[in-house]
Design goal:
Layout (H helix, E strand, L loop, with lengths): L5 H15 L2 H11 L22 E3 L23 E6 L17 H14 L8 E6 L15 H27 L4 E6 L1 H13 L9 E7 L5 H7 L14 E3 L3 E3 L5 H4 L5 E3 L2 E2 L49 E4 L2 E4 L23 H18 L1
Parallel strand pairs: 2-3, 2-4, 4-5, 5-6, 7-11
Antiparallel strand pairs: 1-3, 8-9, 10-11
Helix pairs in contact: 1-2
Protein name: DUF3089 domain-containing protein
Keywords: Signal
Pfam family, one: DUF3089
Length: 371
């Protein structure tokens, strides 16, 4: 069991309870996670300085948890031709402020041993890994109804950091290299906006290998209205596309998830998510709704213990199927204990680690052949 994920597991359990239990229970859990202060721009943490290494969770020029690899694999960032700009998910679950101080070592440790190690590292055979620290919005921002105005301000502040980090990356690091955009959960929320603001109908689109926007529901309506020229991926070698999925145990009722989170994807565009949601199957990289056999599952990777450990690869663990906007999986042949109410959100990357790793390599090669 991954001890480094214990706090995140507890928080996610609370989140699921909030989404699925009766009103009184939900209110109690939300109250536990609610920030003590009102959102105020005068009280937000200091702006990150992205010229400093301390403002980055991962850089190809420093040793970090994005450098880890499973058994038999190599970290190839030193020779990689492409870059990945990775935006980590929420690791700031409780606090007085609506946004994390990026110098909070306790939260940073959760980020580094959690998402950076388990998710960002998947790309280190295909690209140099850049992962900014940012003043992420507190988890409560995705749960509240009555403080939605403050939550949106917290998310706007978080995105402003992500965009500044990306601009710094473009100016000082990119040097005309192909780019992968990737994120999970809150990081996916910001990644989607980044793709719209910097790639859609922009010259930079010609550098986009793909955008792995994982762990959030993206209604087709949002893509049609806001990113009509960036398609959802439908093949393993397609470039300039969006790849997205949310993982659940087969048979799970996902309607409570689709009705629980009142996201504001872009200013002026709201949705209750009761719409057709995009789903790409990471075993085939298509949007087909056919069930895909476990033989196409290249491997789950679960890091644990030391930051430098090299875990084994658990292949052929699950079959998959995109249906009703969700990615359903068969019961894993190995028990991972990350299934909460049928939701494998925490394993959106980890469960398909080797499929994503090989696909990132393949898409970079396809991009280079086209350009």
């Amino acid at each position: 069991m991954l001890s480094t994920y214990k706090n995140k597991i507890i928080v996610f359990t609370l989140l699921m309870i909030t989404s699925s239990c009766f009103t009184g229970c939900a209110a109690m859990v939300r109250a536990m996670l609610e920030p003590g202060e009102k959102f105020s721009y005068s009280g937000v943490p200091y702006l990150p300085d992205y010229s400093q290494q301390s403002a980055w969770a991962a850089l190809p020029t420093k040793k970090d948890t994005a450098d880890v690899v499973p058994q038999g694999e190599k970290d190839l960032q030193n020779t990689a031709i492409a870059d990945v700009f990775f935006i980590h998910p929420t690791s700031y679950s409780r606090g007085e402020n609506w946004n994390q101080d990026i110098y909070d070592e306790k939260v940073n440790n959760k980020t580094d041993k959690g998402a950076i190690r388990h998710q960002a590292s998947v790309f280190n055979s295909a690209a140099r890994v850049f992962a900014p620290r940012y003043r992420q919005a507190i988890l409560y921002s995705f749960l509240t109804i009555h403080r939605l105005h403050e939550a949106n301000k917290a998310l706007e502040l978080a995105y402003s950091d992500v965009s500044k980090a990306f601009e710094y990356y473009l100016k000082h690091h990119n040097k005309d290299r192909p780019i992968i955009i990737a994120g999970h959960s809150q990081g996916a929320f910001h990644a989607l906006r980044l793709v719209r603001d910097y790639f859609h109908d922009k010259p930079l689109y010609k550098k986009l290998v793909a955008a792995y926007i994982v762990g959030m529901n993206i209604p087709q309506e949002v893509l049609t209205q806001q990113l009509p020229r960036i398609p959802v991926g439908n093949s393993a070698r397609q470039t300039g596309c969006i790849l997205t999925w949310n993982t659940f145990a087969e048979g799970t009722d996902v309607s409570y998830i689709n009705d629980s989170f009142p996201y504001e994807y872009f200013q002026g565009l709201r949705t209750n998510l009761q719409k057709k949601v995009a789903c790409v199957n990471p075993l085939t990289w298509t949007t087909d709704e056919e069930k895909v056999a476990k033989e196409k599952h290249l491997g789950t990777v679960a890091f644990h213990g030391s930051e430098n450990n090299s875990p084994g690869i658990d292949a052929q663990m699950v079959s998959t199927q995109c249906k009703d906007g969700a990615l359903f999986i068969s019961p894993p042949l190995r028990k991972y204990r990350w299934d909460f109410f049928g939701n494998y959100h925490i394993m959106d990357y980890t469960m398909f680690y080797m499929n994503i790793r090989r696909n990132a390599e393949e898409r970079v090669q396809a991009f280079l052949q086209k350009h």
